[in-house]
Design goal:
Blueprint lengths: L1 H27 L8 H7 L12
């Protein structure tokens, strides 16, 4: 009983550390720099959009 508890605690610590490292990597690579930008770009009209029927 005690051995399985220790194994689960160690496993959860490794998983938590892994998630923290992935989060730090995402912050350093700029994944969270502009959270508002994509939804505003989606609503903007592209003037030279391909396939819009204008020559």
């Amino acid at each position: 009983m005690l051995q399985s508890t220790v194994i689960l605690i160690v496993l959860s610590l490794f998983l938590g550390a892994g998630a923290w490292l992935v989060f730090l990597w995402a912050v350093r690579t700029g994944e969270f720099d502009d959270p508002e930008g994509p939804k505003h770009r989606m609503l903007m009209d592209d003037e030279d959009a391909p396939g819009d029927g204008t020559p």
